[in-house]
Amino acid sequence: MTSNIMEIVNKINSVLWGPLMILLLLGTGLMYSIRLRFLQVTKLGTAARQIFGKKEDKSDAEGLSPFQSLTTAIAAQVGTGNLAGVATAIAAGGPGAIFWMWISGFLGMATIFAEAVLAQLFNEEREGVLTGGPAYYISKGLKSKFLAGFFAISIVLALGIMGNIVQSNSIVTAVKNAAPKIPPLAVGIVIAILAGLIFIGGISRIGSFTEKVVPIMASLYILGGLAIVIINIDMLLPALKMIIYGAFNPKAATGGLIGATIKESIRYGIARGLFSNEAGMGSTPHAHAVAKVDHPVQQGLVSIIGVIVDTGVVCTITALVILTTGVLGSGLTGAELTQEGFRVGLSGITSNLGLQFIAVSLFFFAFSTIIGWYFFGEQNIKYLFGNKGVFFYRILVLAGIVIGALLEVELVWSLADMFNALMVIPNLIALVGLSSLVVKATKEFNEKYEKKIR
Q: Would you state the pLDDT for residue 59?
């Protein structure tokens, strides 16, 4: 029975996540890049200045600082996909897939900017707390309650419940690799308790957690990866050559080691890049909607930094570790390939250091994603049912965390992928339909506000 359901879901996913979806996501990013005059380049300095400044929103509603909103978004963006997704892209599409991942990230910066601006334009105060996201700008901007409700239900199922079941399972796998004697149930219960303590603190505790943990988590992973690249510095230029050359001639770049075509290189690079940075998927706007800023474009600019961290830095570090350590031909893929790269790269220091390092990284990446995805789901529960639905949602998420520690979750992951794709569709419709509002807000910011914050 389960295998039949799995087969049906996989067929649906092959259609939903096919070339058309990728083209729509890329096309939206290209449209915004052109209409906004490639602000991901021209406004990068302004974006950096927004992050650490403490800006107050006009209302007295409880919200987050721009930096807390960014770290909450990054908590969801930087996850197991940065380890497993990058490795899968390289193994299936060759090193050139990373080049196309960079392209998707570059265009995705414009898309995520638009999402954040719209989230700010249509956020609202509910019982003293700021809330917002695609459901809000779809219902109030597009005037479509049906599409808004469809999006809200899809994201609650995809990320809040099913997605967090998978993340819990990922943590159990990481702990099992580092400490096999610890029972999975005990791990699941501990994760649920820790997550629950953060959940009940509301938006302020979530923001406080992410602003402290995410920078440390990302920095440790980046430093660990850079250490391996430095140890293998003689392989850095060949690795970069494999990425650039492999984007247009995958077989020649690896000497036929990876039998990938240009089509596969583009497909896996772009798909994994978009899945990793979540640009256009409608998830990160929930974090940016609740930032306390004076102008919506401020938070839009902050949001593009998240893509740089996720795709430009963390994904690139993973790729360089795999390529400089020479583990690409090991026959491994996914997280196991990344794990092997770190094992080989750090073996000169301590034999098991690489395995332990990845286990710890997976734990923090997955746990921070649980916090981010829970928050995104909560915003949509509030949209659907008001604050009265939050308690029951928390119970479902915490139960899912414990269940995820005990089960094989391949089917759950496939279902999460399916609902993830379903939530993208109404979000893209809104991004295209409301693009004039984003352009207008950006023009207003450029003409009347930007000079004031320099």
A: 41
